[in-house]
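Final report, closing paragraph on structural work. Over the funding period we assembled a curated collection of sequence-structure pairs, and we close with a single example.
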Amino acid sequence: MNDRKILLIGGVVAIAVIAIGGIYLSTRPSTGNQFAACQAGVVSGGMDSFGTDFTLTRDDGNRVTAAEVFDKPSLLYFGYTMCPDVCPLDSARNAEAEALLKDEGRDVQTVMITIDPRRDTPEVMAEFTDLFSENMIGLTGTNEEIDAVSKGWRNIYKAHDEEDKEYYLVDHMTMTYLVLPGNKTVEFFPRDVTPEVLAERVGCFLDAAG
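Its predicted structure, as stored:
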């Protein structure tokens, strides 16, 4: 735990963040759907190309399906607990946006799926997510399960564990996805969006969803 905290808080090696490979926003607003006014642009393949059904292990040790996880509007993030800087900052931003939305009476949650299942056991995930929100859900699984879920959300990651099997870094994308009940992904947000703007934009989608 002490070594993990050192990496989490005071890591001296900056993580390399993979560019948004394969995901491109245009300046033309999306049309022909109920969320057109809320979306920042259009994406190759459309938002329907994001997401997949899954069964993963929740941070309480229970196996859960996508339908059970996404029973309310969710801010979904892919990261890992030993990430020295990016993941804690993004998780804190998402948790702050969740709190702002709840202040407005909107029932939302945050979800983190690990891309480092070797080290991120349910217990480790629970300890990490509790740092940011008591309602944040942490999910892990087998390598094959995490690969399949990441592919479903077009998430790219790579572990640099060729030499060090314990204290390696993982390159990964840093998008946060808005997933509505029914496992419907309607938008993604880059990490430079502030908590206030994120909460405002999520609110637009919730209003549009009725």
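Helices lie at 2-10, 66-69, 86-103, 122-129, 143-152, 195-209. DSSP finds six helices and nine strands in the chain. We thank the funder for supporting this effort.
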